[in-house]
Amino acid sequence: MAKGWQQRWVMPYMAVLLMCCQTYVCHAELKTHQIKAAYLYQISKFVFWPEERKQVDHFQVCQMGRDSYAGNLNKITGRSVFNKPVIIRSVDSLSNAQDCHLLVLSDPTKIPLKELRTWLSQNSVLTVVDGEEYWERGMVTFVLEKQRVRLHINLSLAKTSGLTFAANLLEVASEIHGGNN
User: Fold this and answer.
1) Interior angle at CA 109, CA 105 and CA 111, nearest 5
2) How far apart are CA 79 and CA 144, in angstroms?
3) Could you tell me if 178 and 159 are in contact, meaning their C-beta atoms sit under 8 angstroms apart?
4) In sequence order, what DSSP letters do the residues of 109-165 get, joined into one string?
5) What is the pLDDT of residues 23-65, one digit of tens each?
6) Please, what are the domains in the chain?
């Protein structure tokens, strides 16, 4: 009788255990998206923008491509950067991103590097990418190092766009690219 009792409870117990493990993995990924979205908001406060870029009604955070932040960018809507409320927009091309202050490139390979650099030389827009293999395309690159979100900063690309970073931001970066790339 005791053996039958064990068999009846093993399967439900294993199912609950499996669900908990899956929830943990999903929670970890969601947490990563939340951390990146929060970083974006904080990073924008440590960027020195040209004065003409501050003469706007809204601080625009744009995302080109799929929503790689699982909806978490919307959580920064309404907060303010240089006393302007943050709004989130989706854009489908660089020509539609000229009014953006911060541009998240979800699939950076869709834009040729030379085209991106030329566009950035004419537009003061902070570009953000995920993955260290794309560091040439993002002024800020999010990288997972030892299961933590880290920043890599590309100073030369920021300079191309007329942007500079506060020393506080550079101190938290785990890698800084500053050569003539």
Assistant:
1) 75
2) 26
3) no
4) GGS-HHHHHHHHHHS--EEEEESGGGTTT-SEEEEEETTEEEEEEEHHHHHHTT-EE
5) 333 444 558 888 888 888 999 999 999 999 999 999 999 999 9
6) 33-177 (3.40.50)
Task: Name residue, tokens 């560091």.
Answer: 135
Residue 107 half-sphere exposure, CB side, CA atoms within 13 Å?
7
Q: Three-state DSSP class for 92?
A: coil
pLDDT at 118 over 90: yes
Distance CA 154, CA 65 (A): 21
Tokens representing residue 71 in the block: 């909806």
User: Tokens in use for 63?
Assistant: 């995302």
In the DSSP assignment, the letter for residue 109 is G
Separation of CA 96 from chain center: 19
